[in-house]
Design goal:
This protein has a four-stranded parallel sheet with strand order 3-4-5-6, with helices on both faces. The protein has a two-stranded parallel sheet with strand order 1-2. β3, α3 and β4 form a beta-alpha-beta unit. α2 packs parallel to α3. The radius of gyration is 17 Å and the shape is globular. By secondary structure, the chain is of the alpha/beta class. It is built from six helices and six strands. Helix content is about 40%, strand content about 10%.
Length: about 230
């Protein structure tokens, strides 16, 4: 697997993003199974390099996961700067597009029997509206629509494309959301989810892993809610 991260902050995003040390730690946990690559998902050249690196290093590219995302703004729509809006849309939506357009020719060339996969990470915000997070909600709705369209484009090639939409999960982006709402503790978000707790990153990763496997062969264009019931009603 090739793990790609920008490894530096974005000025319009009000919290620290991952560092080179964070990326190195991911690689260290997985040994030779993971290769780290510094790159920006918004860059077509960087995403092409990621695809080329994966194919060259591992001999084949079978699945891609678009999981880069940021939240910014923290006010009503008319109070959000263009810079904050652009940051949210460029990472969440353009970043998903860049990875898919870089990977699609390689996945198609694998042939239908290869059962190649595309998975994008959206959010429960892609199915509902969130107070003071209109830009983020709109961007995640766009990710869902984008992947559904891609699923139709790729269906005849045997490549599936699906979305995973997490609820409130213990990540840095949840810390940033807590700041938007003036919360001292992210545990307050657990009340939004009928399961009564926050989700763990591994629970989201398990669903992504399944969607990348041959066992998900009957699914394409799906938006899989892994949100503890947040969007049930």
């Amino acid at each position: 697997m090739v793990a790609v991260d920008r490894c530096r902050d974005i000025a319009e995003v009000p919290y620290s993003l991952a560092t080179p040390a964070d990326l190195d730690a991911v690689v260290a946990r997985h040994g030779d199974n993971v290769l780290g690559l510094v790159g920006d998902v918004r860059s077509a050249a960087d995403m092409r390099l990621a695809v080329e690196t994966a194919t060259r290093h591992f001999g084949r590219l079978s699945a891609v996961v678009a999981c880069a995302g940021v939240v910014a703004g923290g006010g009503a729509l008319w109070q959000i700067s263009d810079a904050a809006w652009d940051a949210v849309w460029s990472v969440n939506v353009l970043g998903t597009r860049r990875l898919i357009e870089a990977a699609a020719p390689t996945l198609i060339a694998n042939g239908p029997e290869a059962q190649s996969r595309i998975v994008a990470v959206a959010s429960a915000a892609g199915s509902t509206g969130l107070y003071h997070l209109a830009a983020y909600s709109a961007a995640k709705h766009a990710v869902v629509g984008l992947v559904r369209g891609v699923a139709m484009d790729l269906a005849s090639y045997g490549v599936t494309a699906n979305v995973v939409s997490p609820g409130s999960t213990r990540t840095r982006i949840l810390d940033a959301s807590a700041a938007v709402y003036g919360l001292d503790d992210v545990e307050a978000f657990a009340a939004q989810q009928p399961v009564g707790r926050l989700l763990e990153p591994d629970e989201i990763a398990d669903t992504i892993t399944w969607l990348c496997s041959p066992r998900s062969s009957a699914m394409t264009g799906a938006n899989v809610a892994v949100d503890g019931g947040m969007t049930v009603s």
